[in-house]
Design a protein that fits this description.
Elements (H helix, E strand, L loop, with lengths): L22 H4 L8 H11 L2 H4 L3 H4 L5 H7 L6 H4 L17 H4 L21 H17 L7 H14 E3 L15 E3 L6 E4 L3 E4 L5 E4 L3 E4 L2
Antiparallel strand pairs: 1-2, 3-6, 4-5
Helix pairs in contact: 2-8, 2-9
Length: 216
């Protein structure tokens, strides 16, 4: 195969986008609800018949405990800051890089330097803000929804979504509102290094950045 050659094409009907969510469900929520929040709400509160088609996919998902072990968003405050060093008085240790934890708000810019974006800094705080905003939108409609279940599905969407624009859709102001879930993608692992994929004889596949590596 040649560099850039497609090795897999997934049709739109196999993707989970907002178009796959029944209108009767979407109409329950505020018009300004984020795509992320809506997808997570559908996975949490959608009709069982509508969700049945995703059951096999669900069985491949990590558990909430997996997320609690690996996702700083679910770590106790004692493990993630706010200080980047151990503080005996507060019994806290920050295990995150300062650009993520918020201990390093921004770099000081020197005069005549080029402008740069800081959206990649304070990532944890940004994620927390997005999660709690989504939660507020959902409980305004379903006040009895379970926090652990919803936040789990929010993290599922967060870790399994792809940047995607529907046909004819213009890029939204918030890039997080251009997302879709691709169930087939859980057969792949992502990497930013060049790799050679070898599938048992007689097929051999070579791919380059961006890479999808098959998990066996």
């Amino acid at each position: 195969m040649k560099k850039g050659e497609a090795i897999l094409t997934v049709p739109l009907k196999a993707m989970l986008t907002t178009r796959r969510i029944p209108m009767s469900f979407k109409r329950k929520f505020p018009k300004d609800i984020s795509i992320h929040a809506l997808l997570a709400a559908f996975l949490t509160l959608g009709d069982k018949e509508d969700l049945q088609k995703y059951e096999l996919w669900r069985q491949t998902w990590p558990t909430r405990q997996d997320f609690e072990h690996s996702m700083p968003l679910l770590w106790p405050q004692s493990l993630r800051g706010p200080t980047p060093f151990y503080d005996d008085s507060a019994s806290e240790i920050n295990l995150l890089p300062p650009s993520i934890s918020g201990a390093w708000n921004t770099l000081r810019k020197r005069k005549n330097e080029h402008d740069y974006e800081t959206s990649h800094q304070n990532l944890l705080a940004q994620q927390e803000q997005r999660l709690h905003k989504a939660w507020s939108s959902v409980i305004s409609v379903f006040p009895d929804v379970d926090w652990e279940t919803y936040s789990y599905n929010w993290l599922i969407v967060n870790t399994r979504s792809f940047y995607y624009l529907m046909p004819g859709q213009k890029p939204p102001e918030d890039r997080n509102d251009a997302m879709a879930l691709l169930p087939f993608a859980d057969y792949f692992n992502h990497s930013d290094v060049e790799v050679c994929l070898v599938i048992p004889s007689p097929v051999q596949i070579q791919q380059y950045f961006p890479v999808f590596r098959l998990l066996f």
